Amino acid sequence: MSTAAITSSAPTTPVTRRVRAYFAPVNRVAEQPTLFDPSVSGDFNLDSPPAPWIDLGWIADFSRKSGSSIEALNTGSPAAPQVQMRAMIGSTVSFRFLTWKKISMALSAGSEHMNLLAPAAGVAANGSGSKGIVAVSLLAGSTATSLNMVTAGFQAGQMVVVDADYSGQTGYVGSGVSAAYVRSAASVNNDPDYVRRMSFNVALVASVTATGLTLAQPLLAGAPAAGMKVQAIEGFVDREGGSFFQEWSALFVMPGEQGERILYHYPRLQPTGGAQEELQALSVPLEWVTLQAGFRAMPVIDANDGEQVLCFRSFLPSPLTLL
């Protein structure tokens, strides 16, 4: 019996064109990030990431820096290093988002990120958006892409937010993503629309019928829970300032030209700065507006050995490459 010979190739320097970014929610209440297992999903289709990872597209100027420090314990006379220890661990990452979406805006802004609710008639103007039109209740049978409801006033091409009424609760609010932290009902004026103003559970309406809305994309939080309502939104707004820090899990992928892949998984990232943009000349008078983003990695415990870590770097060699 004989087997075909395997022709292998020598290792080469990885070559990549671009870096792609994926983010996933962190359960702030349970302090539970979204973990990525490269042994299970490392070779996923870049256009179809595993749930709940959200594709935020190609990014530019990706840079990561280690802030960890190693010190030696010196003993004896004369003193000589006997053992090394990590005195501090730290890591930062920065880049530019090339597309403007709700999540990329929120991540680059760092603090609270709001939906601009379609305004009610005659309301007072406000910098982060005025009072919205009355929310519409969902009917039974709604899914992540189909909302059963009275559709008067809604139209295709409109953006909507789907979430529960604010009812006096404190702590983190928002379905699917911890969108804000409420210290007291008075601080948010007991506004029943407050959760929907902050929520990441938004989508574009593809079509409208007499019995409901069909969405062009699934809601981030999945099928709506009982009691959720719908409001139209005009866009998004963030602010320089605010006391809330966004926190997300992140995955950055460098696809190699020869089939290899480098992955950087940060289970917990929090922003290091406020909203920034960068203008790049295209063709006079056009300029390209990109979103600057910078983050500090927060620690997690690796279940394999109990070590405290900030980032996991994985490498998947190209097929039949010598190790």
Would you kindly provide a written description of the structure presented here, covering whatever features stand out?
The chain has 323 residues and is mostly beta strands. It folds into 2 domains: 19-110 and 245-316, no CATH class; 114-238, no CATH class. The protein contains 3 helices and 21 strands. It has helices spanning 38-41, 102-109, 194-198, and strands at residues 19-25, 54-66, 69-75, 80-88, 91-97, 113-117, 136-137, 146-148, 159-163, 171-173, 180-182, 202-208, 212-215, 229-238, 248-255, 261-271, 276-281, 287-297, 300-301, 308-309, 312-316. The strands form 5 sheets. Strands 6, 7, 8, 9, 12, 13 and 14 form a 7-stranded antiparallel beta sheet that branches. A hairpin with a 5-residue loop joins β15 and β16 (261-271). The radius of gyration is 24 Å and the shape is globular. The relative contact order is 0.22. The mean pLDDT is 93.
